[in-house]
Amino acid sequence: MDLRKLSVRSPVPANATMSDAGADAGLSNLIPGTVLEAFVPGYGLISRFILHAFGFDIGIVVSLGLVVFATATAIRYLKQWGKSIFFNYLTSDVHIEQEDDLFDNVLEWISQQQMAQTARTIKAATRPVEGSTSEGGNDQKHQQSSGNGGIFHYGQWEAQIPPRYEPHFGRVRFWHQGRLFFFTRYQKDNQRRSLHFSYGKAADEEGITLTCVGFSTKPIRRLLELIKMKSFEKQKSMTKIRRPSGKESRYGGAWYRISTRPSRPLETVALDKAQKERIVADVNEYLHPASPRWYATRGIPYRRGYLFHGPPGTGKTSLSFALAGIFGLDIHVISLLDSTLTESDLNRLFNSLPRRCIVLLEDIDTAGLLRDEKSDEANADADKKSKDSTKKDDDAISAKDLANALKSAQRKAKEDDAKKGISLSGLLNAIDGVASHEGRVLVMTTNHPEKLDDALIRPGRVDMQVEFKLASHAQIREIFVRMYSREEDNDAEKYGAATATATLGTANGHGNANSSELKQRHGKHLPNGSIDIDIATSAFQDGFPPREELEQMAAEFASQIPEEQLSPADVQGFLLTRKKEPRRAVAEVAAWRDAKLEAKEKGTKVVRFS
Question: What residue range is the signal peptide (predicted)?
Fold first, then answer.
């Protein structure tokens, strides 16, 4: 057998010269057939078939293709290698986790930069409605969204708010103050995601990396400080509310932000002025930077607790939100009625609190942490009667008795399940145990302070008790005046209240005594004599009476309501249904008062009056 017949050769035309044949042979042997066979299985058989069928040697095309592929691969590898060397040895990084508030701040700042608008791959996110009201041109959009009869179409107005565009996953470069930065948004790798998923966190957890050229992270830290300050300037009049995350995500005591709402002014809380000033002064002294050392040198745990007690609707929770707004603190709300909350979860949540915050335990009397001596005696009597009955009927057990016994066992099992959760000792250990967190402000609210255990409200755990009473005549007048005051009057009151508390807040770094910052906080011009007030910003002010007449109407309105019979929430709810008609409110308050007091005597919870 002639082995030469197995070789693959390109046919040489009769009129071809020897140089052409040599050139074709050189191209054909650019890559040996054995090498091509190793990269492309079956190459020899395919090439012989094409050669005999079409008279064309595909070795040239395949060889050139492999050369191009190898060159591109080498270039891509060198590029990746160069980028790896550059980012590993010539840059500095700062990583930000998704759980941190700085994650959202950086995303919001990046979305406002030019590179976020010109990037080839971006992510569209729905812009919060609250944040869109500060943009220009929204007044015209409000007018355009009014339909027939002046009906405001919320869906049409919301649809006109453009989304926020931010970089998607990957790396984007940008310049800031003459320095090159890189913004990288990424998802956690599979190993880390599986680890976090085992802890109960979301599998699609994200992260951000900010990179700058150089061997120091100082430029990135300065940039983050700038971003944080800009975010603070934008949200300093807002209060963040946090709750414990779900049962699956409580490893390490995870908190998540449920909402951010405008801070409530202290003057809107229906409480005695002297009491409010005393509480603000006490919290201010506790939060002063010198206080931790004072507590430490005297061996006193650096904690502060308050108990707000009184009838429903008297402003207990409202005062908590107002304090958070004054001192720039976040509110961490814990519900002890959560059936999935265990004592270990509660300890982890308390230990994971930030350095300064307000912890709000609402309706502490409904969480089962009660002095229930009467019920214990009743249970003992019931057990005694049950034992006596058992002795008498021990001779015969009927089917009916057996069914009753099974029902009693099931009822007792349900009661035992209902009792599971946070015990009194578990709560006390979380509040002021050996490993409990220091520096937070604990606020507990209750409608029935007499039901609370003495151990829960003893000094050291509850340092100040504040009683909230039903509305007095002074509070009713204040609510009426605040409801129907013009915008400039409300701003004047806010300005005066802010000026009165500026000295207290400045000690903690939260004070704002200058008018420009106060104008930004309230979103309006202050009546300082040199700034015009645009009364037309409110659609309700045309029918509002002057201040002097309003004071007289408030006195007449308050005189028709007996003191400490209705809550401030009741009065405010009545006025809200007539928020454009103060004179109608004065005319109809007597009928509403009678219906409300009659319903209260009968124990009716809902009173409909229009």
Answer: none
| Contact predicate 316/309, CB 8 Å | yes
Contacts for 216 with CB less than 8 Å, ≥ 6 apart: 92
Instruction: Assess whether 167 and 226 both reside in one domain.
Output: yes
Same domain (yes/no): 43, 76 = yes
Distance, in Å, from the CA atom of 164 to the CA atom of 107, rounded to the nearest integer, reads 10
Tell which residue, 214, 211, 192, 212, has the closest CA to residue 203.
192
Q: Alpha carbon of 358 to those of 239, 305, 329, 336, 432: distances in Å?
A: 11, 10, 7, 16, 15
95 and 58 housed in the same domain: no
User: Which tens digit of pLDDT belongs to each residue from 302-343?
Assistant: 989 999 999 999 999 999 999 999 998 999 998 888 877 888
Q: Are residue 191 and residue 110 in the same domain, yes or no?
A: yes
Global model pTM greater than 0.70: no
| 38-68: b (≥16 Cβ within 10 Å) or e | eeeeebeeebeeebeeeeebbbbebbeebee
Q: Is 35 helix (H, G, I), strand (E, B) or coil?
A: helix
Alpha-carbon distance values, 404 to 149, 295, 395 (Å): 65, 59, 17
